[in-house]
Fold these 2 entries.
Entry 1:
Amino acid sequence: MNFEQSLRGGLQSLDLQLSDAQITQLLTFAELLHKWNKVYNLTALRSQDEMLTHHLLDSLAVVPALQRHLEGPGGRAGQRLLDVGSGGGLPGVVFAICCPQLDVSCVDTVAKKAAFIQQAAAVLGMKNLHGIHARVESLAGPFDVISCRAFAALADFTAWSLQALAEDGVWLAMKGKRPQNEIAALPAEVQMFHVEPLAVPGLDAERCIVWMRRS
Ligand SMILES: C[S@@+](CC[C@H](N)C(=O)[O-])C[C@H]1O[C@@H](n2cnc3c(N)ncnc32)[C@H](O)[C@@H]1O
């Protein structure tokens, strides 16, 4: 099975309906990541198989839950998402491709990583995707959703991005096993309201989303 067939199989397992244009964007993004990784060291994963399961499908597995949140009570047009410590654009670029109504900013302290996101947005023709070179602590927002993957402990993630969260915004942290110690260490100002288990096609590992908001 080639990369595209495996991607389409994964989307089917996730019950995620994407247009051919969106699938082409995902494939182009994977190519860009593969090509520029050699130059910029964007990710430790280099094989095509790992790129598919550990990056694309791992991020795609979150999309149905994100879409439910965006379209649920309080959902409205023009929502903004900040992906913190986005690196090579995971999960931010995948979210921007799958949710074209969502405006996605990927922030990273490393200039070349933010530049890569800007370049990907230009190549993919996406006006809803932005790369920002900054520390998250310096951003004002407001963002309706603030996401992260492989970034920091929940207490640090929420403390460093609190000023950028909209009054009624939510944090979406992608984690492996339910991080019980990190949840217990959250300060009183932050409320964890849901831990949502995820299954990633082709990946035999525990995954979850930790949803949080202001208390
Ligand atoms: C382990 S990488 C994760 C990259 C990506 N999210 C992924 O899952 O593949 C963490 C990223 O966070 C960035 N980072 C660290 N501290 C940061 C901060 N205070 N503000 C923004 N980005 C930060 C690093 O430069 C790095 O690219």
Entry 2:
Amino acid sequence: MTPADPALRCGGVSHSYPVNGAPVRALTGVSLTVPRGAVTVLAGPSGSGKSTLLRILGCLDRPEEGSVEVEGVETTTLSTRRRRALRRARIGYVFQDPADNLLGYLTVAEHLALGARLRGAGGDPAALLEALGLGARAGHRPAQLSGGEQQRVALAFAAAGDPPVLLADEPSAQLDRAATGLVVGALRELAARGHAVLVTTHDPEVLAVADEVIELVDGVRRDAA
Ligand SMILES: Nc1ncnc2c1ncn2[C@@H]1O[C@H](COP(=O)(O)OP(=O)(O)OP(=O)(O)O)[C@@H](O)[C@H]1O
């Protein structure tokens, strides 16, 4: 693998969920690459399969069909244990629901220290907190923060330790304009430092800073691939 190779690549990914004994098709034959040093946006209407695809690319779920490579490593054939180890070391993930991202008993600073430890220390967590407008919150626990502040801490936690791949599911969903501006700035800054950044969004402010937009409709890639 060379530095020019994409950080993430998937090919022919299809997936369905069983609902009342019958499969509900969420993705059909999706192929894409996510380059380093850029912000790539996964767009599309509600229910189009964005979260499903992000979870599969983030090695949280295994697709029914297709390949998923992280930094040149095919992940769909790895054991659950090895996939989890690869995810922890190489991928930062921000879940859509703030409650899924943070541990109630850790302060903001402790989250960042944990993120750095999981990946081998790197980056500058204090600078990232400042950039996200959270410089004064390092000693606070999630319950002492608003939903929007928790979502920004989740982004800092996911980026702590500089994982090469950063995935975020609707990172501005809970945020007002000012906070969205901070998150958008942080996503661009992470891309400028060489991270591969992939976010799902409906938000025009996030779409505006995308280097590339990949559009899903009914689980199928709609843009010119
Ligand atoms: N756990 C699940 N069980 C059953 N069906 C599911 C599950 N998760 C998603 N689906 C279905 O899969 C399809 C894709 O859902 P997904 O959440 O990936 O879309 P999305 O584009 O992220 O939507 P949104 O923008 O509303 O978050 C939808 O038809 C949805 O109902």
